[in-house]
Design a protein that fits this description.
By secondary structure, this protein is α/β, with parallel strands linked by helices. It contains eleven helices and twelve strands. It has one domain: TIM Barrel (Alpha-Beta Barrel), CATH 3.20.20.70. α2 packs parallel to α3 and α3 packs parallel to α5.
Length: 339
């Protein structure tokens, strides 16, 4: 990579990972992300003209890759597969020179219908959310009574299509912490990497409380007592999950711990919302409008300069500063930027 394609923020962090939300809509109503009592039938979701088009997303992605050094793009939502013709976007992105990886985060429910087309379009990896193996618990969490088997079918469809699969489990005390070990055992046998995610204070609607966080330390200790673990090195600089391997085996798990073991110092990712706002932190209070300049008469070079200036002035480290002030902070909802 040329030096010209590396732009460092105020803490000397490069931009390598761009997460693109393609819709703010979802067919689930998970309590920690889009609680049904807030995101009801009358909720004002984005209109079509407010969404960035596939052509606009392709243009911006090309600029991010060629002018800022982005190497990985992850497609998120809402539920990204609710965006019509999504494989067409994947195909456009896969043709960008210098882009090494295209992944997607999904609830998995629509993968049986779309997995093969996504793979053929150039998608390489999927992270699929599943927080419980019990239908009663999972149905309550997802707010729609969706069964565990629905997601397992999506996991199987992704694997059959040749996509690399990881499973994401948000762990919340009082909700599903008793399923950490059953989930670990199940996906160890299935041969999929399971990543545990600490319950986070993203957005303003999930009523987050610190005492509901089941910590990385507690997760690892619980599993280690039953299936001994050993720490292993990250796959790459800036990887958000701390990796552990079952002793004497290749199978592994990961823990994403932005609450109790922050990784702000190595954070090299930005998030582009479906309506074209660039967020430089998962816990941002506001986004930088890229839709307006993208739809203006600016050249690619001028647009690249706008984005570079945003990243250059970035100094976010919310998770390291969490709790240092009693003043509440308004934060963007996860459903807008996909986690």
């Amino acid at each position: 990579m040329s030096k010209e394609a590396t732009v460092l923020d105020k803490l000397k962090r490069p931009l390598r990972d761009l997460r693109i939300s393609v819709t703010d809509k979802c067919n689930f109503r998970c309590s920690y992300c889009m609680p049904a009592e807030i995101f009801g039938p009358d909720y004002p979701f984005l209109q079509r003209n407010e969404l960035l088009s596939f052509e606009e997303l392709e243009r911006l992605s090309t600029i991010f890759v060629q002018s800022l050094g982005v190497k990985k793009i992850r497609i998120t939502g809402g539920e990204p597969l609710m965006r019509k013709d999504l494989p067409l976007l994947i195909e456009k992105l896969s043709e960008i020179p210098g882009l090494d990886d295209i992944a997607m985060t999904t609830n998995g429910s629509l993968l049986p219908k779309h997995a093969q087309a996504l793979k053929e379009a150039g998608l390489k990896r999927v992270s699929i959310s599943l927080d419980s193996l019990k239908d009663e618990v999972f149905g309550k969490i997802n707010g729609r009574g969706v069964t565990v088997q629905t997601v397992l079918d999506g996991i199987d469809a992704a694997s059959k299509a040749g996509l690399s699969v990881k499973i994401n489990m948000v762990v919340k005390r009082g909700m599903n912490e008793d399923e950490v070990i059953p989930m670990a055992k199940f996906f160890k046998e299935k041969g999929h990497i399971l990543r545990f995610i600490e319950y986070m204070d993203v957005g303003n609607t999930n009523n987050w409380k610190m005492d509901e966080v089941y910590s990385k330390k507690q997760i690892i200790e619980a599993i280690h007592q039953v299936m001994p673990l050993e720490a292993i090195d990250p796959n790459y600089e800036g990887e958000v999950a701390t990796r552990f391997r079952y002793q004497g085996e290749k199978a592994e798990i990961g823990v994403i711990s932005s609450v109790t073991d922050a990784f702000c110092q190595s954070c090299n990712r930005a998030r582009l919302s479906a309506d074209g706002k660039l967020y430089t932190c998962l816990f941002s209070s506001f986004g930088h409008d890229l839709r307006t300049p993208t739809r203006s008469a600016l050249s690619d070079m001028e647009l690249a300069s706008v984005i570079k200036d945003i990243w250059y002035n970035r100094k976010d480290r919310y998770s390291e500063e969490r709790g240092q002030t009693k003043k509440s902070k308004s934060k963007v909802e996860m459903s807008r930027i996909g986690g």
